[in-house]
Amino acid sequence: MNIENQGIELKLLWKDEYLKTICAFANTSGGILFLGKKDSGEIIGLKNYKKLLEDIPNKIVNMLGVYPEVNHFIKDDKDIIEIKIEKYQASVSYKGKFYIRSGSTTQELNGISLHNFLLKKSGKTWDELTEDDISLEDLDLLTIEKFKNLARNRIPSIINENDPMHILKSLNLIVNGKFKRAALLLFGKNPQSFYLNSYIKIGYFKTDTDLIFDDIIQGNLFKQIDTIFDLLVSKYVDKKISYNGIVRKDNLVYPFEALREAIINAIVHKDYCGVPIQISVYDDKMIIWNDGLLMPGITIENLKQKHISKPRNILLADIFYKAGFIEAWGRGTNNIIAEFKKYKLPEPIFSEKFNGVEIRFNRIISKTVSKSEIEFLGLNDRQAKSVKYVFENQRINNSEYQKINNCSRNTATKDLTILVEKKVFIKAGTIGVGVYYLIAH
Predict the structure, then answer these.
(1) Are residues 106 and 30 in the same domain?
(2) CA–CA separation, 149 and 145 (whole Å)
(3) pLDDT in tens, 210-220
(4) N or C: which end of the chain has fewer CB within 10 A?
């Protein structure tokens, strides 16, 4: 029995509108269209299968430019037709429109989805495309000079190069006399005049709805990076005061290298057809979000281990690598986690939200839970003990809860569920034994 899914469609008879489905198969992962079957898989059979065997291949080739494999089968003394479509590397359209499969449905692509689809089929990333209207006058020569100094360790010869056009060509930012989008984003005087949402928003929030102050960071990407870190250090992130002898030291409550890695990572992986990067700072946490889901083949769990590097914007990643801002080995997220461990802070939480990627940094503000807080929240002695444990150890899992409270697994699960519902803890980690709990603040 064949039930409809992304790669299988069942139809009682042929209609020309099914060319949309065949178009979608070619644009997605290939598929099979069966004629003479109900949606349930029950075989009804075809009366005119001989004519269809002649007509259908010609229609598909003429209307789509796709060459199908069309087969005739007899099952239970009934004739059925199988139309088999391979995945096409090039984009396929039907009457000027593009379709893909999503689950068991055929969907027309429009807007940003269509743009990204065509871009992917072209084999290029967004930042590799050229623009007709960009000239050297649109670029900031001082930023190019700054890059020369940053890149001298990885490109020693660049320090003696004085022709900006030659530098940009050697960086693969000019092709056939045209500047690529990456050139403007990295070195432009005003990239936002071309790409409206190529900026960063940062705000300080008391609650999710109570914005205290905010800033918009514009300019080319090198200037944005300088500005955002200046603002984080001077305005947004608290400092811990310590002393080395009589010398006062002001350290950020979050590891600076981890913040730097996370923000540059967001810039490299942002979908520049989407909305700006957004950084939300609270008393007890910071959230960095960029438009664009993880690249195919990369999962949230992969981010916690060494993984291949698959940047959404390959030229941005290459230039930042040459400037010494990032590595090219997929270790950025591992470095972020390692820095937080060194600071004895809760492990950052990575997630996909709102069609983008979010990284959440939590900080521990208090080391104690007052009696009034326990009474207000209605915590029992076990739950109060577990909160104290997390303040001291950053996290707790079910087994640890059982051990410190000498209770059963069912009791631990029930107590931890209540702590999540009361928004004392947040649940993190993988399903099953990999689950652990952090202070939610």
Answers:
(1) yes
(2) 7
(3) 899 999 999 99
(4) N
